[in-house]
TrEMBL record:
Source lineage: Bacteria, Pseudomonadati, Pseudomonadota, Alphaproteobacteria, Hyphomicrobiales
Annotated protein name in UniProt: Probable nicotinate-nucleotide adenylyltransferase
Native source organism of the sequence: Sinorhizobium saheli
Keyword annotations from UniProtKB, A to Z: ATP-binding, NAD, Nucleotide-binding, Nucleotidyltransferase, Pyridine nucleotide biosynthesis, Transferase
InterPro entries the record matches: Cyt_trans-like, NadD/NMNAT, Rossmann-like_a/b/a_fold
Similarity remark: Belongs to the NadD family.
Length: 197
């Protein structure tokens, strides 16, 4: 895990990043700014249990591409889930919290993930572990109203004008952050990429 000091606020932004693109970088930069984070950990996962991983680029390649697209020194690209030997977010967050008791974390995700968040293993446990910031993505703006997570935890949503307080709130707490959006998607980029050798 990247080095942190007690009292810091850190965003956790996970995904397969297959490939990473400017839309991911925009989510990361928006989170850093709007949540007033000291760091953002860009968590490149070994694989996604909800997706077909047969076309997944090698982890080392996805890490290198992520580092190139996110040069901000406050963004720490890491793949420590590989060392943990698992890829379920709920378990990863438990381990992160256990090893960093004096750090305030926020789970960061694009709104395109919110509509299927209820399919993640132990998703309610994730909501109860860390506050969550959902960053707007094209075509997903209304997900914060209609998704099962948003309906189940509507009472815990804070207004985005208070986003800088999110890391200091006891979970469940979440916000939806509007802002600049990129239409890029990893799925579309893979569809137009030449076949892998």
């Amino acid at each position: 895990m990247p080095h942190v000091e007690g009292g810091m606020t850190v965003g956790l932004f996970g995904g397969s990043f297959n490939p990473p693109h400017e839309g991911h970088a925009l989510v990361a930069e928006t989170a850093l700014r709007r949540l007033a984070l000291d760091q953002l950990w860009w968590l490149v996962t070994p694989g996604n249990p909800l997706k077909n991983n047969s076309n997944l680029a090698p982890l080392s390649e996805r890490i290198a591409m992520s580092e190139k697209i996110a040069p901000n020194p406050r963004i720490k690209v890491t793949a420590f889930e590989q060392a943990l030997g698992q890829s379920y977010t709920a378990r990863t967050l438990e381990i992160v919290r256990a090893r960093n008791r004096d750090v305030r974390f926020v789970w960061v995700m694009g709104a395109d993930n919110l509509k299927n968040f209820h399919r993640w293993q132990n998703w309610r446990k994730i909501v109860a572990t860390f506050p969550i910031a959902v960053i707007d993505r094209p075509g997903s703006t209304l997900a914060y109203l209609s998704s099962p997570m948003a309906r189940a935890f509507g009472y815990a949503r804070i207004d985005e004008v208070d986003a800088q307080t999110l890391a200091f709130r006891r979970p469940p707490a979440w916000t939806f952050i509007h802002g600049p959006r990129s239409g890029l998607s990893s799925t579309a980029l893979r569809a137009t990429a030449p076949p892998r050798a």
